[in-house]
Amino acid sequence: MQGFLTTTRRRTPAAPQYQLPASCTFITALWGNSSSKRWRDKTSKEVRQQRARAIHESGIRHGLTGAALCQRLNSIVYGFGDESLQVLRDCGVNPVEMTDDADAYTPAMQFCRKMTCLRHALDLYDHVVWLDIDSIMLTDKMPADFWPRLIAGAPLQAKIRQYKRRKCLWRTTQPRILQGGAFIYCRDVGIVESVMQRMDAEYASGETAVDDEKAMAWVVDELNGGWVSPAAYRDAGWDPPWVHNSGGDLAV
After folding, report:
1. What is the DSSP string of 162-214?
2. Which of 206, 219, 239, 247 lies in disulfide reach of 234, CB 3.0 to 4.6 Å?
3. Sheet holding 24-30: strands in order across?
4. What's the pLDDT tens digit per position in 183-239?
5. Bridge partners of 77?
6. pTM listed for this prediction
7. Among 241, 138, 189, 52, which Cα is nearest to 249's?
């Protein structure tokens, strides 16, 4: 099946006409500032113009593709910090300003902002899909059963992928397999809170590589009584349809 969303830089088809269900929304966010090389690389005018030329899509402004997707789908774009808010506004996006209370954490804890946005959106909507800021559409229109299929699945869904190094050290098998964070469907704020608590616990224990993906994997393992296999994960509805990551997807 053709993928719907991805973080790979590919040509994006023409913008679809789509009406969101009242109880559903997409969200994305931009955070950081010019003191971070990663932020400069993602938001610099030269890089954004290069990505925009490669995409050839008038609805994509300066290569911030996830933000443009949410903008044209009448969804939420969050901004953390003055510089990120200004970049979004310069790209024609009207962001929701968030308090950047994550400054208390090290840069390795930056992905707590993703969960903060999910928690905020779930106070407003029943069903939320997080998109990374560089996600793009691969189809020319939204699948008609996009939301019904997500709603019929597990309360949190993210595409599993395999990394080169072991991340899920609590497992006895397949510690390299875990959820990718580019696309996250959620309808349960309690799960989001559990992921945030896991991230806080890892940070407090001295972890230097705390991220949402590893925390999601731990929480989902707990909810399922432990990790079994990629096929079991898919069959239980935790694997969203249509989604491809930029690399490492598993054929399950």
Report:
1. E-SS---TT-SS-TTEEE-SSEEEE--HHHHHHHHHHHHHHHHTT-S---HHH
2. 239
3. 96-98, 76-80, 24-30, 127-131, 183-186, 156-157
4. 999 999 999 999 999 998 888 888 776 789 999 999 999 999 999 999 999 999 999
5. 28
6. 0.81
7. 241
